[in-house]
Each structure stands twice: as structure tokens, then as C-alpha cells.
Amino acid sequence: MNISLIISFLLEQRVLTSIIQISSQLTTMTWGITSWSARLDVLGVYLVSILQVTANPLRVAGTVASFALFLTVTGHIAARNVLGDVPIRNAFVVGAVPALIAVLVTTFNINSFIGLAAAIVFDWAVIRTLYEQSDAMSAYVTLIHFVVSVILAAVLFGVLALIGSLPGWCSDIFESLR
User: Cys-Cys link to 149, which of 27, 69, 74, 76 (CB 3.0-4.6 A)?
Assistant: First the structure.
């Protein structure tokens, strides 16, 4: 069923407006119970406790950049296989958005399944906007982007695990990186 028909039906029945009114009244009552200073103090303590980073910021930036580059390559592969000849500059945006979502999910300790769903939805929206495709075609490109990313990540992880298990100097290099 079409979403616009459902919304128009709910508006005609005034169900949606009564839900919104009840929700706003509950929100007003909840916010009225606590004082502003207590809420700001709790929010400040929460943000400071979450955002305390013990990792080197340069390593974090390098990880984000390499992940964005990886997603850029897989996004361009997916778009090129589905849509044909496409400009590579669009892939840089397609790769950066899920990488930034991954950083936000990790920073704020959000459930990884919620982060994955958000990354896929935003990936779809960016692909739909940049490549100017229909919803179904954008969903197909997003699916191919997800599949290519998972397959290529599994292959790269396997290669790095094999290199890391080699006896000699290679294993010493990987041990020093830990």
C-alpha cells in the first residue's frame, strides 16, 4: 500500500493528530518535572564520559580515511557494474557517508545493528541523490555495494591473516602494530 494513502487516511481520521497531541503533552509534562540545570549537568557529564578518547586522534583519522577509501572503491565497483560508466567523484561521497556513520556509532556506543541499518539507509539516499536513479534502482545499487563490501572485506581479512601467520619478519611487523 502506498505510504501517502496511509498518511492521508490517518489525517482524515484525525488519528495522527491525536497521537501527536498526546505525545506533545507527555513531553511537556516530562520536561516540566526536572529543572533545566539538572538536565544540562546530566547531559554534560554523559557527553564528557562518552567522548573521552584514549586512542591517538591521528590513528582514528587514518582508520576513518582508509575505511572511507575502501567504501569508495566498493561503491564505485557497485555503481559501475549496475549503472555502467559513472563518474568516480560520486563514489567519494558514497564511501564517506557510511564511514562517518560507523565513527558516530562507535563513538556514542550505539548498537551496531542500528548503525548498520542507518548506514544502509543513508547509503541508499546518497546513491539515489548523486546518481539520480529511481528508488528501486538505488536499492539495487545499495545491495550490490553491501555485497561487494562484505566479499572484498572477507578476502582482504583472509589475506592479512595469512600474511600475519607467516613465520619470520612478517609476523614481527604485525605484532609491533598491536
Answer: 74
Instruction: List pLDDT tens digits, range 86-104.
Output: 988 988 999 999 999 998 8
Instruction: Tally the C-alpha atoms within 13 A of residue 76's C-alpha that lie toward its C-beta.
Output: 15
Q: What are phi and psi of 14, to 5 degrees?
A: 60, 25
Q: For residue range 140-162, what is the model confidence (pLDDT) as tens digits?
A: 999 999 999 999 999 999 998 88
DSSP class of 173: H
